[in-house]
Amino acid sequence: MMFDLREPIYQWGERVIAAVDLVNDGSYPGVPEDAVLAATGTPGEIVNVGHHGDSNTPVYLVEFLTQAGDLVVVGCLEEELVRP
What we know:
- It holds the Pfam family NifZ.
- Belongs to the NifZ family.
- Keywords: Nitrogen fixation.
- This is Nitrogen fixation protein NifZ.
- The chain is mainly β.
- It has one domain.
- Helix content is 0%, strand content 43%.
- It contains no helices and 7 strands.
- It has strands at 15-18, 22-23, 36-38, 43-52, 57-65, 71-76, 81-82.
- The protein has a 5-stranded antiparallel sheet with strand order 6-5-4-1-7, with no helix packed on it.
- Strand 5 and strand 6 (71-76) form a beta hairpin.
- It is globular and about 40 Å long.
- The model has no long low-confidence stretch (mean pLDDT 91).
């Protein structure tokens, strides 16, 4: 069954801000599960846009610069991001 992909509202290269604490769900290696990867208000940049195949939901890879000065790349959903 084919369906049209839902268009993403954010684009590659766009600056965004974490709208919520982005927490490791166990899929981010080397970081304890439930650790905050990027806190609410952390600025980032979209580095890739994909889709979750089953739900037709855009998924964004966002590079965040944490308060500690580390770069982390986190998979995010639209509701987890806002524009500056």
